[in-house]
Design brief:
The protein is α+β, with helices and mostly antiparallel strands. It has helices spanning about 35-40, 70, 75-85, 95-100, 130-145, 150-160, 195-205, 245-250, 260-265, 265-275, 280-295, 350-355, 365-375, 375-385, 390-400; strands at about 1-10, 15-25, 30-35, 55-60, 110, 125-130, 170-175, 180-185, 215-220, 220-225, 230-235, 240, 245, 310, 315-320. It binds adenosine-5'-triphosphate and magnesium ion. Magnesium ion binds next to loops.
């Protein structure tokens, strides 16, 4: 049996409590809330699937036994690869959860082996932006396979571990009172992906979508710098953590069970889940606009980890938009990662309109959004011409699919 204690920084507070305890055995989990926390009647991230109660939640089988709201604080491809470099044996899902650093985890949860959270847990250990070049060199080495791990490389790898999700190289860095997610160009990228991501996201921001603040750093490797929206600096140099849950968790889906994704990965279901958690209607409208935007720019990597909710000022809100990149196939993608309407993945106006009511939009409002986003096409082309070099420009222009919003 393997065990991890789950800590949580309370919303709007620097106080960290023990939320509960997770045990796993052969990929099956048991989670129980801390009895003191139950007695206090404290706030919990997922009261729908994991309501506060004294009884144990047994036989958790999704996500290798880890409840989704906890799994969201574990790494994916990148963080797992770095961790594997520093270990001699195989690692399971609980190892990835436990051995990843607490300082950069998404949201407000942290992990440890002690029953009570160590003092100052998760507050230290983030490097300054000046360490970016060191990270780029490190990421480059990892991508290159680290032919032989020297002691120095192992020490570096330990320093560079990351709990953040996603497949691409990334680390969190600090600039004064901002925390920034840095995503450098991958050595295996044929194209300048950070520049493409910057172009798509900065264009969305210029059209009034709610986008994580992005900058493009042209250093040793071109690197996208994204402000972390799940942290807020306090006056004394610490950071408040905003609770965060992925769309994958809202949909109660298991990343490693692709057979179920066709049924589960549907924007209509996602917005229903947001509605259940009282995400405001204006955010539901924004989600609809983002689906249209994904079609416009041809971003088909819109899987449900690339959309989240954050708990801010007492309610769940749609997070700012992140990880939007035009597809690189030389044509608009045939489908998005999630179904967009009653007719599944069909990228047609009829399908997009078919579930407008789920977003609290009437047909006139939904049509207005489709027409509005489609009308951005010429501005998008101009934006790409201004911000992208020739090859990237060609691909980004070829991915534009705004016409589908109209027919
Ligand atoms: N600005 C941000 N603030 C807080 N958390 C973020 C931010 N951007 C991304 N994240 C979190 O980090 C994860 C990884 O980031 P991102 O999706 O940009 O990386 P990626 O490696 O390109 O992902 P993918 O594997 O989907 O291509 C996201 O799923 C999200 O949980
Ligand atoms: Mg992602």
């Amino acid at each position: 049996m393997r065990r991890v204690y789950v800590y949580m920084q309370l919303p709007d507070s620097l106080e960290t409590v023990t939320l509960g305890r997770l045990d796993t055995r052969a990929g099956v989990g048991e989670f129980v809330y801390n009895p003191e926390y139950v007695a206090e009647g404290g706030w919990v991230p997922d009261p729908i699937r994991y309501p506060l109660r004294a009884q144990v939640f047994q036989a958790i089988t999704k996500n290798q036994g880890i409840p989704g709201f906890i799994r969201d604080a574990a790494p994916d491809g990148w963080g797992e690869r770095v961790l594997l470099k520093t270990s001699d044996g195989t690692l399971d899902a609980l190892d990835f959860l436990l051995k990843s650093p607490n300082q950069d985890r998404a949201g407000s949860l942290m992990m440890g082996v002690a029953k009570t959270p160590p003092n100052g847990v998760g507050q230290a250990g983030i490097s300054r932006l000046t360490a970016l070049d060191e990270f780029i060199a490190f990421a480059d080495n990892i991508q290159n396979g680290f032919p032989k791990l020297t002691d120095e490389m192992a020490r570096q790898a330990l320093r560079q571990r990351s709990s953040l999700g996603g497949a691409r190289p990334k680390c969190t860095l600090r600039v004064d009172d901002r925390l920034i997610l840095a995503k450098p160009r991958d050595r295996h990228d044929d194209f300048d992906v950070p520049a493409l991501e910057f172009a798509a996201m900065s264009f969305a921001a210029s059209k009034g979508l709610h986008v994580a603040h992005v900058e493009l750093h042209r250093g040793k490797a071109s690197t996208l710098l994204v402000d972390r929206f799940d942290r807020r600096a306090t006056n004394d140099g610490k950071f408040l953590r905003l609770p965060m849950m992925s769309g994958l968790t809202l949909l109660d889906s298991d990343w490693k069970n692709p057979a179920a994704h066709e049924q589960e990965w549907r924007y209509g279901l996602l917005v229903d889940e947001m509605n259940r958690r009282q995400v405001p209607v204006e955010d539901q409208h924004e989600l609809y606009r983002r689906i249209c935007f994904n079609i416009l720019v041809g971003n088909d990597d819109d899987h449900p980890k690339n959309v989240s909710v954050i708990f801010d000022q007492g309610r769940w809100r749609l997070s700012p938009m992140y990880d939007v990149v035009p597809c690189l196939d030389g044509s608009p993608p045939p489908r998005l990662a999630m179904a967009v309407g009653k007719f599944g993945h069909a990228l047609t106006r009829r399908n997009l309109l078919s579930q407008a009511a789920h977003y609290h939009l009437d047909q006139t409002q939904a049509c207005a959004i489709l027409d509005d986003v489609a009308s951005w096409e010429a501005d998008l082309q101009a934006h790409y011409r201004e911000h992208l070099a020739e090859q990237e420009q060609r691909l980004a222009l070829a991915a534009i699919g705004g016409q589908r919003l109209l027919v």
